[in-house]
Amino acid sequence: MAYENILVFREGAVGRVQLNRPQALNALNFRLMTELVEAFREMERDPGIGCLLLHGNEKAFAAGADIKEMAELGAIDMYTRDYIELWDEVARIKKPIVAAVSGYCLGGGLELAMICDIIVASETAKFGQPEINIGVLPGAGGTQRLTRAVGKSLAMEMVLTGRMLTAQEALAAGLVSRVVPVEVYLSEAQKLAGEIASKSPVALRLAKEAVLQAFEGSLSSGLAYERRLFAMAFASEDQKEGMRAFTEKRKPEWKGR
Ligand code: CO8
């Protein structure tokens, strides 16, 4: 597929995608989301890539789903078009995804960032679910993922008023993992993605799956799930290599199996 709305880069073991509709503050139309899913799937298949990185530009990560594209759709169109499912497809990616966020990160844009595994924010980032201001509610997972990320009270305030959080507020609420100056937000996220990509692919996959299980079901089922995946790690050569390398005081050489 020739991409019109995203730019795709490969930097070492990091696959990087830039959302690229700056004239619309990277509003996520159907075509852009389709391209993003396709690019991520290709990176997922590439054994040389260990971590994915997603970002927009300094002014906007993404200002939401494309309102102009949605405005005249009816309920059945919205329910049966596989538009929102494209967010679910991103959530099915098994490799870790880092989001680097600067400027507006709103609506479907925040929902996309929250599907990513780690959010690195620039000091200028603004996070919000402003759908209430256009007569709807978050529709690509926001009511669920935001509530789990920041707790009920703040999620309710954001969803019911549309108020945007500053980067510092998002940090205090646990929505993002760090806040850095805008000049370095992308390079910091690249460094982080590079560090993640240097780890054992098999351990990364198990670890991501186990952490995500914390969002599903009860604590006891999550702990049991983690226990099974932890045991499964001991079937990998990377576990043997990792622990032997530690004992022998050398760097591990990952095999990815
Ligand atoms: N959709 C379409 N176009 C947009 C969007 C958007 N979400 N956001 C900005 N744009 C466009 C503007 O229309 C404008 O285009 P034009 O120059 O042709 O008029 C251009 O981007 C620049 O925007 P502004 O002139 O408005 O820029 P400002 O700096 O004045 O304002 C804001 C920035 C505050 C971010 C403002 O643009 C805004 O409020 N945008 C909308 C934010 C919003 O409501 N987002 C939620 C959308 S709904 C959603 O995401 C639901 C997702 C769940 C379901 C997904 C299913 C498909």
UniProtKB/TrEMBL annotation:
Keyword entries, A-Z: Fatty acid metabolism, Isomerase, Lipid metabolism, Lyase
Database matches in PANTHER family: ENOYL-COA HYDRATASE, MITOCHONDRIAL, ENOYL-COA HYDRATASE-RELATED
SUPFAM superfamilies: ClpP/crotonase
Cited Gene3D superfamilies: 2-enoyl-CoA Hydratase, Chain A, domain 1 (3.90.226.10), Lyase 2-enoyl-coa Hydratase, Chain A, domain 2 (1.10.12.10)
A Pfam family that the UniProt record links to this protein: ECH_1
Protein name from the UniProt record: Probable enoyl-CoA hydratase echA8
Lineage of origin: Bacteria, Bacillati, Bacillota, Clostridia, Eubacteriales
Organism: Symbiobacterium thermophilum (strain DSM 24528 / JCM 14929 / IAM 14863 / T)
Pathway this chain belongs to: Lipid metabolism; butanoate metabolism
Function: Could possibly oxidize fatty acids using specific components.
EC identifiers of the protein: 4.2.1.150, 4.2.1.17
Alphabetical GO biological process terms: fatty acid beta-oxidation
Enzyme class per UniProt: lyase
